[in-house]
Each structure stands twice: as structure tokens, then as C-alpha cells.
Amino acid sequence: MSQTSHDRLLIIDFGSQVTQLIARRLRELNVYCEIHPYQKVTMDFVRQMAPKAVIFSGGPDSVTREGSPRAPQEIFDYGVPILGICYGQQVMMQQLGGQVDGGKISGGGGTAEFGRAFVTPEGTLPLLEGWFCDGDEQVWMSHGDHVSQLAPGFAVYGTSPNAPYAITADTSRNFYAVQFHPEVHHTPRGAKLYENFVRLAGFSGDWTMGAYREQMIEQIRAQVGDKQVICGLSGGVDSSVAAILIHEAIGDQLTCVFVDHGLLRKNEAQEVVAMFRDNYNIRLIHADESELFLGELDGQSDPETKRKIIGKLFIDVFQKHADTIDGAEFLAQGTLYPDVIESVSFSGGPSVTIKSHHNVGGLPEKMGLKLVEPLRELFKDEVRALGRELGLPQSFIGRHPFPGPGLAIRCPGEITREKLEILREADAIYIDQIRKHGLYDEIWQAFVAILPVRTVGVMGDGRTYDYACALRAVTSVDGMTADYYPFTHDFLGETATRIINEVGGINRCTYDITSKPPGTIEWE
């Protein structure tokens, strides 16, 4: 659990697929919150965390089932405001003396409600300030069970066709409960409901990147003391922000190891090295091991084999260079809060597998190192905000995600130096086109893949037999799902013409319009 000194809000996770969105909405309000699975939330845990308010998330279970998830009964006497969302509302009612009836999904006869619905107001409530200004309010429902009898002290403040207790509250105890999900964008004014709740709970909105920066500098200094820290630098936003924050805290006690595997974009290695050496004066080992990586990849075409080769070599190279740093006792990583949440997930599953070339998994134990993870309380957008706070250029902070294996997974089939050079040039033109048309910040990720086929073409009066390439651009929130970006035909035509005219070796361009799922964002 975090030792942060900010006002805290506890989110008890009952297994909803959108619990992270609750945290995102609160962080946007400058409120510090933590998600913890209900199994781990005891009253000792609550007292140690000392939250100013508690939110119960939604969940897939039925409170009518014996042994279904519950909150600690004593939390209702803890004296802080509580907000129940969907399953969280049903937990509150069941534990406080109300009644929940099973819907069709859980074997009952009630009417389920999934998708868009409209809530009609019943009286006024401070939680709903800014709601119902234009009549009924659109919300997103996703429930099988429903509350059939309110717990003592609660009153109704909103109804929907299939949820007669869509909004309920016990204002004397500051307990609030809604059957819908205000955290999803399908509830257009849901953010206002969270804003009202944290205001009623007395939060000061002290969760800012300026405050976080100062706090983490103090924590890093206290943790590290006078010891040396090494950081595996990928050149991505997360590891770069972590490195610069740590350098601000401990200066020359930090050494970054940048492993250049020869699979980076055009001029990328030079840009990363220049930024860290020239602008921040950070000790940096530029391990140019491109010949090693490309030699091992020669003749390999299976995507998993390529990934394993790159991952193993990365660890070997990183350790070789890290061993040259005397007195290193800490390894810095750019672990983010979504990774931490997953590691203590509702289902108790293992932490997410982070690619070894981004997160040098296994090395801390192998090398006897302790971890420094200054971003482990942050979401991706907060990392970008911290980067701005630290003075990183916006052109770097706003960069699209780039995979650890680099261009290897944008080159299906066998990798050759010729294909990589063609790919770099085509990708640079594509990104230049996107920037020139002012579209870069609208797109989550964009890149070119060079296809393992040659096609016949005609250029001038001659026949060509060159590679085809695929352009890929997607919109996404978190990379878990994605949709293709709807470029105009004019843009695609202009871009294809530039690539074919300016890049030797390509005579055909296609645009990939596959969503995720069923496809993935990358090609391998």
C-alpha cells in the first residue's frame, strides 16, 4: 500500500471490468485513490490506509449467492462517505438490511438491464448537482439482479424503467448508491457525479504532478541513500520519465543502459542519446549491439522465436554492461499503476507479463538488486503529465507507443538489413504525413509494416518487382481494444504516392482496417 501523504480514497474492487475507469475519473479530479480487491480489505487495512471516502465497484457476481463478495461489515461504522456502484449498491443494500432479488442471469425472475437507459429524478440530492438539468439523464446499465427493498435510512432519488432504485442515498450517514456505471463514457455526465462525491467527502484535490514530483524525490533519496542505481532505458516515455525523475533525486548515482538492438526507427537511437546526454547530462551507456541482435535473427521467421531471441539477448547485454557499474544495488523500472493493479487483481491472478526488453524481468533476483519504481502509482496519462512537469519536450512525451522488439514485429517473416532500411524510410514518411495533416495526437499508434511478399508494378516504362507495405493507424484508450483510424482517401492516396516515389524497394501500399479484436495492433 502506498505511503503517500495525500488525501486518500479507497476503491474496493468486486471484479468489475471497468474498475480502473473509476480510478481514472478520480485522478482527473486530482484525488489520490487506490484499487484493492475485496479479499484483501480488512478493517486493519482500512485503518492503516485511513481513506477519507470509500467506493464499492461493480462486479459480475450475485449478492444472492451464498459466499459472494462482501465488504467488511464494520466499514459502515467507520464514519466516511461511501458510494456503491452497481454490484456495490447491491452489497450495501444486502449488508445494511435491504433486499436484492436475482435477475434472470442469477436464476431469479427479475428483469435484467444492459446498455443505455434513462434515469428520472425523484427529489434533490447534493450528489446529483448538475444532473437532470435537461430532463432525464442518460446512463449505462449492466445488471441482472436489482434492489427490491431499500435498507433502513435510504431514500430513492432516481428511477429507470427496470431499476426502481437507480439512485439511492442515506444522507445522514453520507452513503450513496447507484445501479448504473457513472465511470463509463456512455454515462455522459458521470464525471460530474464523482466530482460531487469527492466534494461532499471533503477532498482538497491535492493530487498534482508537482506534489508527486517532490514526494517521489524525497522517497527515492530515502530509499537509495548513497548507493548506485542502474536503469534499463528503452527510449520510451515510461523509462525516460522514470530516469529523469530519479536523476533529479540522486544525480550521478544513476547510470542508464540504453540497449540499441538495431531495430529502432529512423534516427531514434541518436535522438535518445542526444536527449539524455546533452539535455540532462545523465550517465548513459549506449550499448550498440545491433550486429549481435541482427546476426542472431538472421534466417529466423517465426514471430515467437524472434521475440525470444530479442528478449534473451537484451537481458544478456543489459547484464554485461550493468556489471561494469561498481556498487550498483538498485534497478530502476518504469512500472505503471495498471501493472500493479493486475498483480493484485480481483481474481488473484499473476501480474501481467511485461516484455523482457521493457522490464528486465528476473534480473533483480539474478543480480541481487532491489527495485526503484517511482511511477508505480501513476496511469499512462499521469506519466505524461509528470514528464511535462519535469520539462521533457512535448514532441517526446506525446510519442506513440513503440514495442520493445521494435521493427522486428513490423517485419513479418525473415528480417534483413535491406528490409529494415526500407521500413525505416517508409515509416518516417508516414509519420511525417500524419504530423503534417495535424493528426498525430488523434491517433494512439501508427506505423508501417513491410510485408513478406513482392508484387509486380510499373514505374516509368519499366517493370518492378518490389515489396508491398501496410499502413496501420489505430485509436484506443489503453491499447486493450482498438479501432482503425478513418483517414480520408485523399490522405491515403497522397501518403502512398510519397512512399512509393521516395522509398526504393516498395511499389504497393495497403491500409489495414482491422480492429482489435479480432486482430492485434502490431502485426506480430
Task: Name some characteristics of this structure.
single chain; 524 residues; alpha/beta; Rossmann fold; GMP Synthetase, Chain A, domain 3; 3 domains; nine-stranded mixed beta sheet; five-stranded parallel beta sheet; 20 strands; globular; GMPS_ATP_PPase_dom; EC 6.3.5.2; purine biosynthesis; ligase
The CATH superfamily of the largest domain is identified as Class I glutamine amidotransferase (GATase) domain
Number of helices: 15
- Which overall shape is indicated by the principal axes computed on the Cα atoms? globular
Helix content: 25-40%
- The structural class is alpha/beta
Total beta strands: 20
Descriptive overview:
With 524 residues, the protein is an alpha/beta fold. The chain has three domains: 8-200, Class I glutamine amidotransferase (GATase) domain (Rossmann fold); 209-397, 3-Layer(aba) Sandwich (Rossmann fold), CATH 3.40.50; 416-511, GMP Synthetase, Chain A, domain 3, CATH 3.30.300. It has helices at residues 19-28, 43-49, 87-95, 190-200, 209-224, 237-250, 268-279, 290-297, 303-322, 337-343, 363-367, 380-389, 394-397, 417-436, 489-502, and strands at 8-13, 32-37, 53-56, 82-85, 99-101, 113-121, 137-143, 146-149, 155-160, 163-170, 175-178, 228-233, 254-260, 283-288, 328-332, 370-372, 445-459, 462-475, 483-484, 506-511. Strands 2-1-3-4-11-10-9-6-7 form a nine-stranded mixed sheet, with helices on both faces. It has a five-stranded parallel sheet with strand order 14-13-12-15-16, with helices on both faces. Strands 17, 18, 19 and 20 form a four-stranded mixed sheet that branches. α5 (209-224) packs across α6, α8 (290-297) packs antiparallel against α9 and α14 (417-436) runs antiparallel to α15.
